Amino acid sequence: MSAPNARQSQGSSMSVITSRSTNGAGNISAAFLEPEEGMILEVPNLRIFTFAELKAATRNFKPDTVLGEGGFGRVYKGWVDKKTMNPMSSSVGSAMVIAVKKLKPGSSQGLEEWQCEVNFLGRMSHPNLVRLLGYCLEERELLLVYEFMAKGSLENHLFRKGGSVHPISWALRLRIAIGAARGLAFLHSSDKHVIYRDFKSSNILLDTHYHAKISDFGLVRNGPADGDSHVTTRIMGTYGYAAPEYVSTVHVQVTCT
Fold first, then answer.
1. Pairing with 182, which of 93, 106, 130, 240 sits 20 to 30 Å away (CA)?
2. Residue 217: which residues within 8 A CB-CB, separation 6 or more?
3. Which of 198, 207, 216, 228 is flagged as catalytic?
4. Full-model pTM
């Protein structure tokens, strides 16, 4: 059984950078093509989706497309064209599967975590970080669009959650652990010394080939700067997974993940 969730959100002083084409549809910059490995962009490089586009991509958010649910809302399976990112039917050969996180409207915590995802994950490119493809901000609707991780979370495999989940070998477990560690090391070694704060098996997702990718950047923040050794903040994350020194002192360092 996983540790009880005790997540809290943090405010974000960063604004969401958006762009919109003249016909109202979200546009894709030339830099949308896969950035080089281990790169942090100056600004978020994301597709801006309309609510109608994501509604069509998920078949009107049908119950049978639900991938998961949490306090933030639901995650749906959707389909878009590989090149244009426009919504399409799953039966078409050029369709690409996506995961659409639809946050509960009117939640201040949801808005703060949504901003963190866009402003942090939207600027990062690394093989061991889940790729954020785009977002929707339309009236009270907040949605995030990710690459689809076919094998689900590491937690599901470790605790055999779901009828189709099978045990994974020790060799594969080691490979997954190394992959997740590489993603975390990239965050820690970046210029911003990014502090993740919620490193746990449910936030490590696996693609078709069981490559590990860190997901859920709602609690991320920049690390200490100007020679400081730590940042003082409220305790956030999940009890049982947070670093003991962070819980006891409320001083968070890069090594506190």
1. 240
2. 116, 117, 120, 121, 196
3. 198
4. 0.77
